[in-house]
Design goal:
Layout lengths: L11 E5 L3 H13 L3 E5 L2 H11 L3 E4 L8 H9 L9 E5 L4 H9 L4 E4 L4 H36 L6 H50 L5 H35 L8 E5 H11 L1 H5 L4 E5 L5 E5 H18 L8 E9 L3 E8 L29 H12 L3 E7 L3 E9 L9
Parallel strand pairs: 1-2, 1-3, 3-4, 4-5, 7-9
Antiparallel strand pairs: 6-8, 9-10, 10-12, 11-12
Helix pairs in contact: 2-3, 4-6, 5-6, 6-7, 7-8, 10-11
Length: 415
């Protein structure tokens, strides 16, 4: 097996193809590298095998009897037990539309037939490593949260240390989510460029053999334009993700007071939360005038809003429900901005309403809650943003938070 920074021996791979000769070829290639291989001849069987076998990677053909590969992938991504398993399409279909549909259905990569052993093994190794890194990341985040809970029970621990640990846990999660989200546009770009190179190589051979004609050249130009369009849109999305990440997350590390267009600022927050929202049945809506300019501490404001959204996602809704979180912004005269962050979830019992902002209070002590989230949020609103915060709730109807912040923050923040 090729050298890898992560141990891949024994990794479980499911190969799906309706041609037995293809199954045999890929099985021989993969088993020679030390992988454990299972196989299926059609989409329905692949879903059953994946659920039982729990592979770490799936190699999936497109053209199969019954449901095709695209539909098989879509159905897998709708199943809790297998939706996180990465899927690589291995197919003879090379049209741009097929490549786009593959990634749209949930695949992480696209390999064309005839199978090239070195390319297949390289792609398999790459995505197995990424999968193991994602699992390791989730384990580390979970351990970090558990560690925060343990620290919270130690009376001698300084408050500042705990608050910083909670903030870093929040940032670590966003970094991990964004890294995973960037994989899709980068994967599309890589596949489009690889496919374009294959077309260019074929054109070069035809030219050398004096078999180049107007039709093949026209097809190549059309194909190239499609590839460029696909690469351009993918890179535009990736650049937007990175820019939003820089504006929001990096901003949390400093206490600079700057001018921000509030509508654009909220769009950036929504974008960096996209990976989490994709995996959630709940929706986020934002209603903000386009012309509000705030002179404020953007890092503290992003922490407040992201924490309140995450708080709703974690606490507000019953299992298997589909809820809505709504952020509404309006001005109060020329001096203040009013934020309303509401959900339509289960609400909060009146008996604990007075405790939600208390340090270490949590209803999720065994499920990753440290009891610091709302405490930190209220402290940021009052000490860093110069505002006031209140909460209201009604059982079975939802919970809301009201923030009233100065439009122009003109004093040094409290340390």
């Amino acid at each position: 097996m090729s050298k890898s920074p992560i141990k891949l021996d024994g990794s479980k791979i499911l190969v799906v193809d309706d041609k037995k000769e293809n199954l045999e070829l890929m099985t021989n290639i993969l088993e020679a590298e030390g992988y454990e291989v299972a196989f299926a001849l059609n989409g329905e069987k692949a879903i059953q095998v994946a659920t039982l076998f729990q592979p770490e990677l799936i190699l999936l053909d497109v053209m199969m009897p019954g449901i095709d590969g695209f539909e098989t992938c879509r159905r897998m991504k709708g199943l809790l037990d297998v939706k996180e398993i990465p899927v690589i399409f291995v197919t003879a279909k090379t049209q741009i539309a097929d490549i786009v549909e593959a990634f749209t259905s949930g695949a992480v990569d696209y390999v064309t037939k005839p199978i090239r052993q070195e390319e297949l093994l390289a792609r398999v190794s790459t995505h197995l490593q990424l999968r193991k890194l994602v699992v390791l990341r989730d384990e580390l985040i979970s351990q970090l949260r558990d560690y925060n809970i343990e620290l919270a029970t130690l009376s001698e621990l300084k408050s500042a240390q705990l608050e910083e640990s909670e903030r870093m846990s929040h940032l670590a999660e966003i970094v991990g989510e964004m890294s995973h989200e960037l994989g899709t546009p980068l994967g599309i770009t890589n596949t489009a460029i690889s496919s374009m190179k294959d077309k260019l190589d074929a054109l070069e051979i035809a030219f050398g053999q004096q078999q180049l004609n107007k039709e093949s050249l026209t097809d190549f130009i059309t194909y190239g334009q499609e590839c460029l369009r696909l690469v351009g849109s993918s890179m535009s999305y990736a650049n937007k993700l990175v820019a939003s990440f820089k504006d929001i997350v990096v901003g949390e590390f400093n206490e600079t007071i700057i001018d921000i267009n509030l509508a654009t600022f909220l769009e950036d927050i929504e974008l960096i939360l996209t990976p989490k929202l994709k995996r959630s049945p709940h929706t986020l809506t934002i209603d903000c005038p386009k012309d509000i300019i705030m002179h404020t501490m953007s890092g503290a404001l992003s922490q407040v809003l992201i924490n309140l959204i995450n708080n709703s996602l974690l606490h507000a809704f019953e299992p298997n429900s589909q809820g809505t979180i709504r952020i509404q912004v309006e001005t109060s005269g020329v001096k203040n901005v009013l934020f309303s962050i509401e959900d339509n979830g289960r609400g909060i019992e009146q008996s604990i309403m007075d405790k939600v902002f208390d340090k270490y209070f949590t209803t999720k002590s065994g499920d990753g809650g440290s009891g610091l989230g709302l405490f930190i949020v209220k402290k940021l609103v009052e000490d860093k943003l110069g505002g006031v915060m209140s909460m209201y709730s009604k059982l079975d109807e939802g919970t809301g938070f009201k923030l009233e912040l100065p439009m122009h923050l003109d004093y040094a923040p409290t340390n």
